[in-house]
Amino acid sequence: MISMNMRLPLRLLAWAGLGLAATPLTAQMPPRPADPVQACEALKATQFEKTTIDKVTFVAAGQVVEGSTLPAHCLVQAEIGARVGVQGVRYGIRYELRLPTSWNGRFQFQGGGGVDGVVRPAFGVLHSGVTPALAQGAAVASTDTGHQSDNTRDATFGLDPQARVDWGYNSVEQVTVQAKALVQRFYGQPARYSYFVGCSGGGRQGMMAAQRYPQHFDGIVSGAPILEQHLAQVGSLVALRAFQTIAPRNAKGEPILSRALSQKDLQLIDNAVIAQCDALDGAKDGIIENHAACKVDLRGLQCTGEKTDTCLSREQVSVFTEVMAGPRNSAGVQLYPGPPWDAGISSATWRGNWLGTSETATPNTAKYTNQSIRYVFMTPADPDFDYLKFDVDRDPARMMASAAITSTRGVDFEGFKARGGKAIVYVGMADSLVNPAGVRDWYDRLVKANGGLESTQRFARFFVAPGVEHCRGGRGLDRFDPVTALQNWVERGVAPDTLASSGAAFPGRTRMLCAWPKIARYKGQGSLDDAGSFECAAP
């Protein structure tokens, strides 16, 4: 019987730098089970405390995911700590682990998203431009983080205290320990390198792993991490109230949020952002590289007379400017950074996140329908809380307690540094779901707390992707591969100064994402579609 008490030996092994990251992959090929089908079947007999292995199946090669053919592998599905919780709801940490017969010696934890609730297939998918880890030959694990739902927006699990803890951090620890034990049993040796890779909620989980469980992972990719939702959502709720004040009213006098700004209004703002900031990097190419210097003045769009489609009302200019400056309380104290100006304000994604399309007084914007605020980030949970009545002086305090189990805004990475861990953090600058300025602010604080930029970049590097939305998409170059860059850093000591990028938004264009605080600046000659015409330089 393999007990959950085996965590301590695994931790000591990791802290000593043995086993998990001792041998370069190129030195010797990892073992392959003599009879993979039989080895897979044997995993059914594995026992862990308070755990049920529900299914063990050998999967033939051939499935195509993200353009890559998956190899033959053993699929393990299990559940940890099944129980009946608050209101008679059944809970348990479910996970799956896929073990390829041709193994490259790596283990990868695939981060989740939203508020989880479903076990996503453990293929190791991140976004376009990255080959699924399973297709590369890595063993991959994924989890629902301790609750089950039909969709990843159902946050009612927040009514159960233990489910909050499992979602916040505990499930990552529990699943990692068991998955690594199964890896060792199947292959006869532990993984040589262990990675956590995720975006959005998965990005938050990656940062949680680095801060709470540094012994488990050699490298972490954290994309668009929701580092501090207890704080970031203050900005969201303040913005909703502000947009509501300029929204037209129905016959009952109720505001229709989606009409606060028409599509033509948003296009005017979008055009102004490009006009005022595009050339700050030396090139007018539709991409704002020098985002830190981008300060947009909308007063030139204000109507001199009656409101028309070619101008904004005085109230629209005032409110939009106020929202972009970030939330303040009634005393004028800044509560969270304002979002950065970037291309994409006229996109369907921006509208969907901030204003929605509802023609009624009940908004359908993603910011308004976000259940996690009511059930997880309000303490105690407040299912009936009206976001449009958010009190900027009283209500932020109600969200602070959740930080103890969900926040990853910390800057103490001593444990992660001690084990030689490496982290790549990235965010799209047109992300209207996660405020990129909050992530950038966190990295600046990390630099200050860890002896400056040079010493911080020895273990953590930050990249921003201009024009890119949440994890992918947008009017930017969203095809880039931080996973291979991380592997080269961890396994070969080659730290990434740039990430090569491309994307469907600009066919044929290549560019490099530069390690912050440098940006891609035009050299003054050469094609704007050629990465060689740019260099990483100070803003």
List keywords for this structure.
disordered N terminus; single chain; globular; 539 residues
Q: What is the radius of gyration?
A: 24 Å
Please tell me the overall pLDDT.
92
- Structure classification: alpha/beta
Report the major sheet.
9 strands, mixed
Total strand count, please? 15
Q: Please report the distance between the alpha carbons of the first and last residues.
A: 58 Å
Helix content: 25-40%
Overall 3D shape? globular
- How many DSSP H or I helices? 15
Oligomer: single chain
Residue runs with pLDDT of under 50 for 5 or more positions: 1-27
Across the major sheet, the strand order is 1-4-5-7-6-8-9-10-11
Describe the structure.
There is one protein chain. A hairpin with a 5-residue loop joins strand 4 (73-84) and strand 5 (90-100). Among the domains are: 1-191, no CATH class; 230-260 and 295-339 and 355-404, no CATH class. It has 15 helices and 15 strands. The radius of gyration is 24 Å and the shape is globular. It is 29% helix and 16% strand. The chain is an alpha/beta fold.
